[in-house]
Amino acid sequence: MSAASARPAPAAEPALLDRADPEAEIAKAAAAYSNWGRWGAHDVLGTLNFLTPARRLAGAALIRRGEAFSLSQRFDMNGPQRGWRRRTNPVHTMLDTGTDAAAGKQGFPHGIGGADDVIAMPLQCSTQWDGLGHIFDHGMAWNGRAAADTVTSDGDLVTGIEHFAAHLAGRGVLLDVGRVHGDERGELPDGYAITRQDLESTAAAHEVEVRPGDILVVRTGQFARTVREGWGEYAGGPAPGLSLTTAGWLHGTQIAAIATDTWGFEVRPNEFDVPAFQPLHQVAIPNMGLVIGEMWDPEALAADCAADGVYEFFLTAAPLAITGAVGSPVNPIAVK
């Protein structure tokens, strides 16, 4: 018997998790679903390697009507952040204004005037991608690199998000789990752990196939609820989200990336009776190399998909090419 076959298998459903031992459950999933070395020792793209030119071309062929939908929340002072780990909402400041121009303060010739502005914000304060240097597992970053050598005060020296800039465009698929498994408003309750069965049954209900290289958008309905009721604990509090036990499905489907309408992608509180924090992140990013998006707004797209029954589309969602960043704001655009 090989060492690999001797390892205990990861839990396939939430009821099988040892809720008293998150470390062991994370370790089993990390070992089973690791992609270290899959694309060579120098890889900086992780699961974006599944999004090939041929798959991107197939995604572009899905455009039929030319209708476009932004999947971004707003970037402003009225956002959800409450200061956790120094995350704040964006601060937008004008440097030059029409008032300045009208007052003749800008010093330009022949009546020309202009406006300029600046924004200060954490890169993960609203709709965003996590980079591969965002999460570590026992001091190790993606592809078996030492975290201390990979991400320093100078930024992510190896897997900075700038490497993603040309890759995140292809076939998008919406899995509206909220509409299929939620309440009459199409919303899952906070703390709802989305399982593999939920994802597969949602795809079946939508009559859409999840394929390698896809960019998945999972709608829970939590963002819709915050729009109606206020932010509350949206940033960091209880939320519906993916179960740790979906790691095998995420690995096996060979998707390129996945995004949700929640702050943390995975179910919160996390699925343990002892202290735990974002265990699926710990498996997915440093071990699987999975690209994760959070705080997306799929509401307009979801309404259109429900109306026409088509849950696949072309999706472009390039991050800003910020050298060495471990996350980036994004304005995803779905085109049907």
Quick synopsis:
The protein has helices spanning 3-6, 22-32, 53-60, 98-102, 147-150, 177-181, 196-206, 222-229, 247-253, 279-288, 299-308; strands at residues 68-70, 91-96, 116-120, 128-130, 140-141, 145-146, 151-152, 155-156, 169-176, 193-194, 215-219, 241-242, 257-260, 291-294, 312-316, 327-329, 333-335. With 336 residues, the protein is an alpha/beta fold.
Summed up, the helix count is 11
CATH architecture of the largest domain: 3-Layer(bba) Sandwich
Q: For the largest sheet, list the strands in their spatial order.
A: 1-17-15-9-11-13-14-4-16
- Global structural class: alpha/beta
What portion of the residues fall into strands of 2 or more residues? Answer: 15-25%
Shape: globular
Radius of gyration: 21 Å
Protein name: Cyclase family protein
GO molecular function: arylformamidase activity
Pfam families: Cyclase
Question: How are the elements arranged and paired?
Answer:
Elements (H helix, E strand, L loop, with lengths): L2 H4 L15 H11 L20 H8 L7 E3 L20 E6 L1 H5 L13 E5 L7 E3 L9 E2 L3 E2 H4 E2 L2 E2 L12 E8 H5 L11 E2 L1 H11 L8 E5 L2 H8 L11 E2 L4 H7 L3 E4 L18 H10 L2 E4 L4 H10 L3 E5 L10 E3 L3 E3 L1
Parallel strand pairs: 9-11, 10-12, 11-13, 13-14
Antiparallel strand pairs: 1-17, 2-3, 4-14, 4-16, 5-6, 7-8, 9-15, 15-17
